[in-house]
Amino acid sequence: MSLQKAPDGVSVEKQRGTVPNKRTTFMNGEELDIFCNGHEKDCIRECYNILNKYIERILPKGEKESNNSSNDPLDESKDIEAELQDEIAALKSDNKGVKRAERLFQVIESGAKNFLFIRAKDVDPVGLASAIVQDIAETKQMQTRHLIRLVPVEITCKAYIDNIKKACSELLEKHFKDCAKSFSIIYNHRNNNNNSLSRDIVISEIANLVKEYGNDHVVDLTNAQVTIVVEVIKSIALLAVVPKYLFYKKFNLHAIGSNNDTQSSEHNKELMK
């Protein structure tokens, strides 16, 4: 279905701000992978809202203090009152949270069905996604309907095995150099026609790279301390080393928040194909 065109040649949807930004080239930036259930516009709004809710929890302490510090004790009550008014206003309007999140995050189309990228600006995607799934697991409160999975990305590269190995080496140097860890490797691919990039090859090559950091790192397929996640979307590979990825059900927000794991798994099985 084609987009309706405005008189100046720009789509009406884009003028209204309902179409995510497109990017033709991918940089080695930090991002989040978003899996939705087909309701893309609603998923984007949910994503902005949940990111805005949790971003305060991972901001550096110094940044929070610099935004809220005051040397005048007489102004303290005024500051508190102003903050309360801001919180009340934010609760009354979801759009305020969305606008704020838009300053830190940028939605990018992936070209794959039910899948979006969120480029994070000066935000640790692993820390942010981990804070979200941990809270949902503890409270067992479903916070999204259309946003299914929220997977952090630390580095991106072209979807060729040599590029993936090079990018993965950078991550291993960061995460595996200092101490022994149990680990697992998860590889998924969507809309990719590179037959040479098979699951067995990718996992084998990454496992060999891990061995270069010593034999103390052991494979654990059920409860690994960290998981090396490789997602290939078309011609792009997205990688991250994520703590407790298996424990938190591969960061499936619906599965984590559901009290009925079997029902949640069946509900999302088709969406995750």
TrEMBL record:
Q: Does the keyword Coiled coil apply?
A: yes
* A Pfam family recorded for this sequence: THUMP
Q: Does the keyword Transcription regulation apply?
A: no
Q: Which PROSITE patterns match?
A: THUMP (PS51165)
Q: Which SUPFAM superfamilies match?
A: THUMP domain-like (SSF143437)
Coiled-coil regions listed: 74-101
* Family per record: Belongs to the THUMPD1 family.
Which GO terms are recorded in the biological process aspect for this UniProt protein? tRNA modification
- THUMP domain location is 135-243
Q: Which GO terms describe its molecular function?
A: RNA binding
Identify this protein by name. Answer: THUMP domain
Q: Organism's domain of life? A: Eukaryota
Stored InterPro entries:
THUMP_dom, THUMPD1-like
Query: What keywords are assigned to this protein?
Result: Coiled coil, RNA-binding
